[in-house]
Automatic annotation (TrEMBL):
Coiled coil segments of this chain: 380-480, 634-661
Taxonomic lineage: Eukaryota, Metazoa, Ecdysozoa, Arthropoda, Crustacea
Topology of the protein relative to the lipid bilayer: Peripheral membrane protein
GO molecular function annotations of the record: actin binding
CDD domains xref list: FERM_B-lobe (cd14473), FERM_C_ERM (cd13194)
Gene3D superfamilies according to UniProt: 1.20.5.450, 1.20.80.10, 6.10.360.10, Phosphatidylinositol 3-kinase Catalytic Subunit, Chain A, domain 1, Pleckstrin-homology domain (PH domain)/Phosphotyrosine-binding domain (PTB)
Protein name from the UniProt record: Moesin/ezrin/radixin homolog 1
Amino acid sequence: MTECVKPGRELLVNKPQRDELWNPLEFVPVFLLARGIQGHSGAALKERAIQLPGGVLQCLFFKMPLRNIFRGKSASKSFPVKIVMLDAELEFNLPWRATGRDLFDLVVRTIGLRETWYFGLQFEDSKNNFAWLKMEKRVQDQDIPKQSVVPFVFLAKFYPEDVSEELVQEVTQHLFFLQVKQSILNMDIYCPPEMSVLLASYAVQAKFGDYDHATYRAGSLSMEELLPQRVLSQYQMTPVMWEERIRVWYADHRGMTRDEAEMEYLKIAQDLGMYGVNYFTITNKKQTELWLGVTALGLNVYESENKLEPKISFPWSEIRNISVDDKKFTIRPTDKTAPNFVFFSKNSRMNKLILDLSIGNHELFKRRRKPDTIEVQQMKAAAREEKHRRQIEKDKLAREKQLREEAERQKAELEQRLLQYQEEMRAANDALRRSEETADLLVEKSRIAEEETMLLTQKASEAEQECQRAHLLSAKTQEEKMLMEHKVREAELLVSTMVEEGERRATESERLQQELIRARFSEKQAKEKLNTLVKTFNSSICHSAANSSIVNSSILGTSLLNNSTMHLPPPAYSHSLAIGSTNDLVVGSAVDLPDLTLESTEALNSTYAPDLTSLDLLNDTDVEQLSLEIEKERVEYLERSRHLQQQLRHLKSEIEVLKVEENQTLLDAVYHEQLRTGETKYSTLRRTRSGNTRTRVAFFEEL
């Protein structure tokens, strides 16, 4: 296994000897509960781990002096922190003067994350409100919990506009998958029942791999870990019924890798109305309670009981300036003739959080519309190479699987042919045995007929002798003559009868001899047919053995070629990323956001156009090939989408009869109304952005 440590570090799996100096402040212990580090699985790391009590499953010690991590800071005093992730926990000893950036960089380096601009560290402050760790401020100077081990939660702070285009690293995709899945299960994101079943099937594919009917056991899936409790309570369906519907779709995902299943999950989830929205309670000048949603595309305003369908939206391209004054939040649009968009929150802390999320989303909004940086281009190139390599391995595996299935099919055919030949041989042996029995019977009948013929011939000669004696005695007396005449007539009659019987017996004997000849001829033909079948079977067995050896040689060669494939090195890590953070806000503070009108976007493109020209990494052939691949993926995606829509409609109609009407929520009613009118998340956003800014601000004030 490749060591997952940087140069200059030593991986320790045991404590030092007694004669060595052991300073706990010079080492950073990292506890992993589930996933591995930098692409290594937990199973691979478990072989090199120490089993510890207290629920900690695995422990890796990186011998890494703190002065190398936090240069220029005193390491004489430290405090423990715990980073909670959705599938792991990390623990570090952090220097007292460490900043939020130091801790964040340590976490992302540990898990091998490079797309750091989406994530942040969340904690619960002294007033039990959730806050994000400020990067440029010392950790101890922030309102962190006063506990022996300070807990932080590593979460996605910002969401991409399109997961398939923006998320490059697999670890980034996996972290988003876990967070979105947990949000759906916690009902923080509304998901309709039929969509929940589809997403659950992708989650099962990502966790267990391909469906195997031989090893799958009914009842092995936990519905609480796959479907929201709201969905389970709205239908009169048992867990077995839900599992069967998930299993049907799970079987359709055969051949899909874990990363592909997680990406399909995210593609479907990003079309949900509440995906990627951070909600805050606000009021307008009329003191109407509303929801403010901060998204990657802009700010949305929702009614107090409908977080699914926004009433109005303000895209980031129309926002020029944001300012905070205690509980008052003011947004100045780029249209200087339009009035300011003003709302009020419950406290100033919430306004600071809204401002922080707004600035971060606005920065990412601008960044997406600029040319990719060198680092992002390198990551995308490495991701394409890795995807291409995995596709090659997948194709090789598919070919090997096809060859194996072909060999098994040929083996089954040979076994079937063998059984057929054996059946034909048994039938031929039975026919031969019956022919031999018939021939023996005919021989016996012929022998009996010959004996009867000889007996009749003997009786005829005796009768003729008796007739001669009667003629000799007929001269004695007339009476004797008459008697003899009578006997002669009787003898003649008997002789004629015997002669006829002899002729009949002779004819019968001749017929039996003919049948015997035909039987022996049939026996000869049966033996010849049996010999022919035996020769044919031997030649088929030889030919099949030759084919099997060829297939085995091909599979062995392919396996050796696959084993000899060299793995690409992981992309070089760069820790020079910087995320814009929010400094301490004072009353009356304001933040200017650059205009994002059409003209400014064109200016950005013209500014960065020379960089793109100088960083042209693709030639015409690569561009053409990439275009063909994109078009092919688009066609496949549209076809798959149509198929999924048909399946979703079928499932919806199937479970509709089992719905419990009294358990339906307001969001369910809103969703069904959207289905009835044909509204989608994107059509709703287009509608809420229609009109000018002045009209939308006026509409907000009237809510």
